[in-house]
Structures are given as C-alpha cells and as structure tokens.
Amino acid sequence: MSSDPFVPVDFDPPTSLVTDRFRLEPLGPQHNESDHAAWMSSIEHIRATSGYPDGSWPPLDGMTLEANLDDLRRHEADFAAGNGFTFTVLDPTSGGVIGCVYLYPSKSEEFDVVVQSWVSAEHADLDVPLADAVASWLVSEWPWERADRCGR
User: Fold this and answer.
1) Closest Cα partner for 49 from 86, 85, 101?
2) Cα dihedral sign for 45, 51, 56, 62?
3) So what's the pLDDT on residue 1?
4) What is the pLDDT of residue 52?
5) Average pLDDT for 46-54
6) pLDDT at residue 3 tops 70
7) Residue 77 pLDDT
8) Which run of H or E residues covers position 77?
9) Where are the domains of the chain?
10) Which residues of 120-129 are buried (b: 16+ CB within 10 A; e: fewer)?
11) Can you tell me the distance from the alpha carbon of 44 to that of 61, in angstroms, rounded to the nearest whole number?
12) If residue 79 lies in a helix (H) or strand (E), which one and from where to where?
C-alpha cells in the first residue's frame, strides 16, 4: 500500500450522487435506525453480493443498534479525515436507507480505491444500476484512476 494520502489534501469530496432511483449522502449517526433495519433484513442477500467474498459481513447474527451506531460513527470519522468515504443509499421518495457505498484505500498496489456497495433485498433490482452509477461518478468526480469494483 502506498504512503500517499488516499485523496489529495486539497480535494473536496463530493457529498451526493442523485439519480431518479436513489440518492447518496454521507453515512452518519442520523441514519442508524434505517441503516440497521435495511441490512439486518437483508443479511443473506448482501452476503451473496459481489464484493463481500470473505463472508464476514454482515455478521450472520446481526448486531445491536448500539454497535451499528458505533460503526456509523467510525465511517463518519473516516469521511471527515479523508481516510475513507461511506455513503448511505436513500430511496428518493421515502428517504429511507436502502443500501450503502464504501470507498476505501486498496491494500493492493494495483488499485487506488476499493468500491463496495449493497442494497437491501427489497431493492435488489438496484444493485447493478447503483454499482454502474458509482463507477461513472468515480470517473467524473473523484481523483482515483484505478478502482477495484470487486467483481462489478
């Protein structure tokens, strides 16, 4: 892994991606209940999604709402520090969480960023459109040239 920063110091990361089918905004504690409900209801679906090959997330037994909140706070801190960028995927009509997108440094010299995403089982039809929209967004708005899309 390179010692270069994940993003340039003067880079102002985008904070939204809007389509007619979903919108992204930075994941934070305010999403805890909706985020927890979305992934807890979709554990098997998410584990079968490209990009989750090691089978460790989400945990089969789930996690408490408090543990999820700790996780969201960690993602929020990573975003603020520029160490990683996690976005919640929201339904444009209801505003509820329907998925997540994670942009974190690659451990491989071959890539600049690892891109993972999931949608709830109820919104499985958005899996490929979300991954494709994020790939285009990375090219147009983010500083990386070599994205590991985890099989997408």
Assistant:
1) 101
2) negative
3) 46
4) 76
5) 81
6) no
7) 97
8) helix 65-81
9) 17-148
10) bbebeebbee
11) 11
12) helix 65-81
Whole-number pLDDT of residue 60: 87
φ/ψ of residue 85, rounded to 5 = -135, 115
Q: Is there a contact between 82 and 142 (Cβ–Cβ < 8 Å)?
A: no
Contacts of 85 (CB under 8 A, 6+ apart): 13, 26, 78, 79, 102, 103, 104
**What is the spatial distance between Cα 60 and Cα 99, in angstroms, rounded to a whole number?**
17
Q: Percent of the chain scored above 90 by pLDDT?
A: 85
Contacts of 53 (CB under 8 A, 6+ apart): 150, 151
54-84 pLDDT, tens digit per residue, is 667 888 899 999 999 999 999 999 999 999 9
Residue 151 has pLDDT above 90, yes or no: no
Give the integer Cα–Cα distance in Å for 98 and 87: 11
Q: How many CA atoms lie within 13 A of 98 on its CB side?
A: 20
In the predicted model, what is the mean pLDDT of residues 27-32? 97
- Residue identified by tokens 């999403």 is 31
Residue 91 to residue 35: CA distance in whole angstroms = 12
Buried b (16+ CB within 10 A) or exposed e, 41-66: ebbebbbebebbeeeeebeeeeeeee
What CATH topology corresponds to 17-148? Aminopeptidase (3.40.630)
